[in-house]
Amino acid sequence: MVIDFLKTAISLKKIQRQGWIDKLSINNPESVADHSYSMAVIGMIISDLENYDSEKILKMTLLHDLAESVVGDLVPGKISIEQKKKLENDAFFKITQNLSEPINLQYQKIWQEYQKNESVESKIVHQIDRLEMVLQAKAYEKEGYSKEKLSSFIETAEKDIVNPKLKDLFKKIIED
Length: 176
What we know:
Layout: H1 2-10, H2 18-24, H3 32-50, H4 54-63, H5 68-71, H6 81-96, H7 101-116, H8 120-142, H9 147-160, H10 164-175
Helix pairs in contact: 3-4, 3-8, 4-7, 4-8, 6-7, 7-8, 8-9, 8-10
């Protein structure tokens, strides 16, 4: 049970972030695991600075892309939002189904909370997702990738990040 879950989680190391491939033609972009780890670090520090539920935010960041270990990194425009949601929900439920009932129920609840994007923590995690994307975009810019091609990532994040602390961090990142 636990071994299957861990094998699934570790497979995220081999799933490349599709948006970087599609828009920048990067041959070896960050993996979903790279992204999730960076989000967890951001979530940890933001939770501690702002007194959020750190445990929930960390679990949410680590679980938010777990379904991609089964379905891949599905990017907007290639599949409908409804199809993406269904595929990811089905995959997530399959991944967690063999965990002990209390853990399975806890992870399902966190997953659904993230999907609904209504709680304080889920809203923060969605914004952290965007902030991490900006950090990665700036890293790719420093490696010589086109600022123009990276601009859509920055614009999306700027629109979606509304939390004052995260907005401030966003501004500092793009000024760097």
